[in-house]
Amino acid sequence: MKPTRTWVLLALVGWTCAVAAYAILARPSSGTTVILVALGPLVAGLVQSHRQHLTVLARLDRQKALLDRQTAILESHVHRAEGVARVGERVEDLADLGPSIATDLDALRTTVDALPHREEFDAKVRAAAADVITRTRKGVAVDLLLTFRQLEALHNLYALGDVDRPMPPTRGWASSPDLLLLLATLVEREEPGLIVECGSGTSTLWLAMLLRRFEIKGRVVSLEHQQAFVESAWAAVLRHDLAEYVEVRYAPLEPVELDGTTYQWYSRQAWGELDGIGLLFVDGPPGELGPHARFPAFPLLADKLSPDAVVVLDDLIRQDEEEVLERWLAARPDYHAERVSLEKNAALLRRTSRPASAV
Ligand SMILES: C[S@@+](CC[C@H](N)C(=O)[O-])C[C@H]1O[C@@H](n2cnc3c(N)ncnc32)[C@H](O)[C@@H]1O
């Protein structure tokens, strides 16, 4: 049965029951009762008409929602159509420009063709192009050779060291393989009991590994001003089981005054007690701290060097380090320097009384 009919039937039954109850309880006149009974179909009609209105309203709501959706779809089509129309306008603009570009190109070609000494001009362009190609080829060849040298050094280093786990990267911020190989030669030859390194990283691990490899009773003290690099260097040391050969010391930078200039250098607390340094490797702090950032290393640690110590200054490829070296030598004529040609160049300092090493 349809819902509306059910409601009409319910209204009719409900009305009849209500009239019967009223007749029993209130005992109205028979005329009133007849009128009330006769009103039943009217009430049922009203209910039916109300239900039909509700149904029509629900249908209208559904149609409105459908219309809203279709309107939204139509709007998006209109939006897209407007976009397409705009692109079309641009294409037309470009098409308009086409002939004028072609005309400009023709004019340019004519101008170039009409240039005096055209052949001479062409020859010069060809010569310049050939020169660029030759120089690029030479540059690539030199670069390949230098890279090959680093690979050779790295290969020798791995053969020397007792490496059974992955090593951190070399070059860039870290020492290059050729410098690490030089350090290896020094460690083997000098057998330093105490190595002090300014600036930790890949070199820390290699120095410790070489001490173990050559069975030297020595240790590395690495000064590092950045906590994060202390942690990464130490993690690498532990990974390679080298803790008995290394100390990575957190040495925050502090102001130090030398020759009337204030520098930022490793806190004295981290190195004050050291003595008898056999190998001092100066590879920090970073140059971006200011001019001659590595200058304090030698004036502050010179008295802590053993008589036959070697000092290695990295990055002599930079003018700043070259100036630092000159200042060191000017202040200490009892030391002499040997420049070593490497990827980033380096200098070895020894007491003048010691012969040059010819590394
Ligand atoms: C030239 S690096 C020292 C490199 C180290 N002797 C070696 O051979 O790996 C000098 C300082 O730069 C910082 N440093 C190290 N690795 C870095 C990196 N990958 N990026 C930025 N700074 C770095 C550390 O504070 C380090 O003491």
Layout of helices and strands, plus pairs?
Layout: H1 3-26, H2 30-114, H3 118-160, H4 177-190, E1 194-198, H5 202-213, E2 219-224, H6 227-239, E3 246-250, E4 253-258, E5 261-266, H7 268-271, E6 277-282, H8 297-301, E7 305-314, H9 319-331, E8 335-340, E9 346-351
Helix pairs in contact: 1-2, 3-4, 4-5
Characterise the protein shown here.
This protein has 359 residues and is α/β, with parallel strands linked by helices. The protein has two domains: 113 residues, no CATH class; 191 residues, Vaccinia Virus protein VP39 (Rossmann fold, 3-Layer(aba) Sandwich), CATH 3.40.50.150. 59% of the residues lie in helices and 16% in strands. It is built from nine helices and nine strands. A seven-stranded mixed β-sheet has the order 3-2-1-6-7-9-8, sandwiched between helices. Helix 5 links the parallel strand 1 and strand 2. Helix 3 runs parallel beside helix 4. The N and C termini lie far apart (109 Å). The model has no long low-confidence stretch (mean pLDDT 91). S-adenosylmethionine binds next to helix 5. It comes from Actinopolymorpha rutila. GO terms for molecular function: methyltransferase activity. Pfam families: Methyltransf_24.
Please summarize what this structure is:
The protein is α/β, with parallel strands linked by helices and 359 residues long. The protein is 59% helix and 16% strand. Helix 1 (3-26) packs antiparallel against helix 2 (30-114), helix 3 runs parallel beside helix 4 and helix 4 packs parallel to helix 5.
